[in-house]
């Protein structure tokens, strides 16, 4: 019994290390997915960056390893070449994207905190993919407005990943829908928001979860009725909604 308890504690500890974001009810099942499918195929650079990020005090902000694997395969399936990422943190999802793109692929990456990005940058450079990344520090909205102003940017992006300030997701969407090509994808992260989207009004939620919950719900309702896109909400990580532009 003691050995079983120690094993369970070890499993839980490993979860915390990588920033546990799974919505699966069973931690053991999530660990099975990681150890059977994700970790054995995880590129060495992504493993290094994941372990580096786990030591950061805000490590729960990182993209989960299974979601990183999903994004990497998705980008290969759609043959993405020109992409954008809003919200970078230390760059785990950014690295997953860069590794999936061809050598002349491009990522416009935006984040308000360059320090976090530079924490992971040496790993990205060592992986030989930093030349694909154009990093801009600061709020994304002014950059998006500038891109939208020039019509040559309309429909120029194959894939856009958003993992940033939830209270701006709706505002981002109205700009990104012009920038992504017809047939291209926008991925919105955290659309199940710690499972709080189905929590009753009086549920005990962390302050930040409760605050952003309404914005996530607003986004989900808007995407569900947006005639310009097809959507698919997946329970990967903390929930990711894929939007395929159809017009």
TrEMBL record:
Organism: Hibiscus syriacus
Keywords of this entry: Metal-binding, Methyltransferase, S-adenosyl-L-methionine, Transferase
Single GO biological process annotation from the record: methylation
Gene3D superfamilies in alphabetical order: Vaccinia Virus protein VP39
Family: Belongs to the class I-like SAM-binding methyltransferase superfamily. Cation-dependent O-methyltransferase family.
Required cofactor(s): a divalent metal cation
S-adenosyl-L-methionine recorded as keyword: yes
Protein name: Caffeoyl-CoA O-methyltransferase 2
GO MF annotation list: caffeoyl-CoA O-methyltransferase activity; metal ion binding
Catalyzed reactions per annotation: (E)-caffeoyl-CoA + S-adenosyl-L-methionine = (E)-feruloyl-CoA + S-adenosyl-L-homocysteine + H(+)
Pfam families reported for this sequence: Methyltransf_3
């Amino acid at each position: 019994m003691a050995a079983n308890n120690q094993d369970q504690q070890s499993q839980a500890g490993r979860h915390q290390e990588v920033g546990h974001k799974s919505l699966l009810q069973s931690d053991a099942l999530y660990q099975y997915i990681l150890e059977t499918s994700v970790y054995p195929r995880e590129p060495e650079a992504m493993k290094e960056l994941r372990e580096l990020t786990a030591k950061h005090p805000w490590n729960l902000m990182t993209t989960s390893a299974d979601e990183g694997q999903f994004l990497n395969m998705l980008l290969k399936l759609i043959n993405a070449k020109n992409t954008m990422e809003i919200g970078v943190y230390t760059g785990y999802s950014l690295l997953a994207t860069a590794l999936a793109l061809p050598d002349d692929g491009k990522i416009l990456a935006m984040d308000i905190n360059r320090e976090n990005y530079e924490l992971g940058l040496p790993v990205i450079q060592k992986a030989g993919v930093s030349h694909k990344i154009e990093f801009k520090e600061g709020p994304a909205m002014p950059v998006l407005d500038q891109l939208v102003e020039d019509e040559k940017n309309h429909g120029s992006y194959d894939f856009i990943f958003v993992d940033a300030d939830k209270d701006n997701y709706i505002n981002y969407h109205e700009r990104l829908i012009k920038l992504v090509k017809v047939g291209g994808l926008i991925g919105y992260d955290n659309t199940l928001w710690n499972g709080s989207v189905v929590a009753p009004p009086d549920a005990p939620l962390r302050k930040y979860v409760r605050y952003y919950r309404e914005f996530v719900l607003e986004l989900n309702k808007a995407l569900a009725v947006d005639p310009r896109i097809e959507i698919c909400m997946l329970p990967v990580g903390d929930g990711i909604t894929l939007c395929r532009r159809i017009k």
